[in-house]
Amino acid sequence: MHNTHSSNDTSPGLLAGKAAFITGAGRGIGAAAARLFAREGAEVLLAARTQAQLKEVTEEVRAAGGTAAYVVCDLADPDSVRAAVDRAVELYGRLDVAFNNGAAITPPGPLDQVSQADFDHLYAVNLRGPWLAMSAEIAAIRATAGTGAIVNNSSVGSWAGNPELPAYGAMKRALNSLTESAAVTYGPEGIRVNAIAPGGTVTEMIRTWETYSPGLVERLTPRIPLRRTADPEEIAQAAAWLLSDRASYVTGAVLKVDGGARA
């Protein structure tokens, strides 16, 4: 994807001066967000389960001149989530913004073929995890920066019936509701909470889905008005804008970033 950030650009970055926390930051959209947020001036703490991936992305960010650190975090473990958010405050003295991007996927299939173990795993990581993260992030923002912004990564699969990924779609739809409730609750304090709903994006998650549903991307692409899937950075750009002061009057939104697929 063409990078619109010129090396000769002396204007302050979109997230200049902000301390940012990102879950699922070892790969895909989360890794793209870590690189982008740092390029836009944020001090970034990357969180995910896989240390090797976190270390690699953190080193890339630092090599490009950004400020980054990482913490191993399992969204299914409440203590791990709280400790990761606390680490951002320990490192940077504050928390301004957070991107709750981390999520799990399970094999696609109809509702009656979803195992209880898979359903429980999706709940723990894709719904309870962001809820725990938001709770900790709001406390950290309140205690340090005072005001700030949170973006949750939802999915266009949350907007309508999702016969291939019914439990995944259900958790993401519930995340939309949590996002809206948090926006209403914390808006008076100056804490904005939004979500993005990506469409088909070239990540490990969609590649995993394709192994179960061969030809998935070829089937999806004609339904997208832009006639292509997204690059992870394009999704990260939407999150960066919502977290920035440029979106200062936007809260409670679930922004479709899907090339027009749900238009």
Structure report:
It is a single chain. The protein is an alpha/beta fold and 263 residues long. The protein has a single domain, classed as Rossmann fold (3-Layer(aba) Sandwich). Helices cover 44% and strands 15% of the residues. The chain has helices at 28-39, 51-63, 78-92, 116-143, 166-186, 204-212, 216-220, 232-243, and strands spanning 19-23, 43-48, 67-72, 97-100, 148-153, 191-198, 254-257. The chain has a 7-stranded parallel beta sheet, with helices on both faces. α1 (28-39) packs parallel to α2 (51-63), α1 crosses α8 and α3 packs parallel to α4 (116-143). The protein is globular. It starts with 18 loop residues before the first strand and ends in a 6-residue tail after the last strand.
